[in-house]
Amino acid sequence: MKQVFSYFIQVFKKNGPHQAPNFNLKVMHGINKVSIILFLFCVLVMLYRAIF
After folding, report:
1. What are phi and psi of 46, to 5 degrees?
2. What are the pLDDT digits (tens) for 17-32?
3. Residue 22 — left, alpha, or beta (φ > 0 → left; ψ -120 to 50 → alpha)?
4. Cα 5 to chain center, whole Å?
5. What is the pLDDT of residue 15?
6. Rounded to whole angstroms, how far apart are CA atoms 52 and 34?
7. Looking at residues 5-18, what average pLDDT do you find?
8. Could you tell me if 33 and 12 are in contact, meaning their C-beta atoms sit under 8 angstroms apart?
9. Where are the domains of the chain?
């Protein structure tokens, strides 16, 4: 569980100046951000539908 949360923190934090920019890594993290946000949105919609 700790690894999952540490990955979320890694994806959503800004890179420091000491890290070399890598286009593939930026695109991968961008896609992961979109996936996480859509997943959380869908969970909220499912909870809303279950309640009402």
Report:
1. -65, -40
2. 666 678 888 888 889 8
3. beta
4. 10
5. 66
6. 27
7. 71
8. yes
9. 21-52
Average pLDDT of every residue of the chain: 83
- Rounded CA gap, 29 and 11, in Å? 6
| pTM over the 0.85 mark | no
Residues 6 or more apart whose Cβ sits within 8 Å of residue 32: 11
- The pLDDT value given to residue 3: 76
Among residues 36, 34, 29, the alpha carbon closest in space to that of 11 is found at 29
The token pair at 50 is: 């279950």
Tokens in use for 49?
């539908």
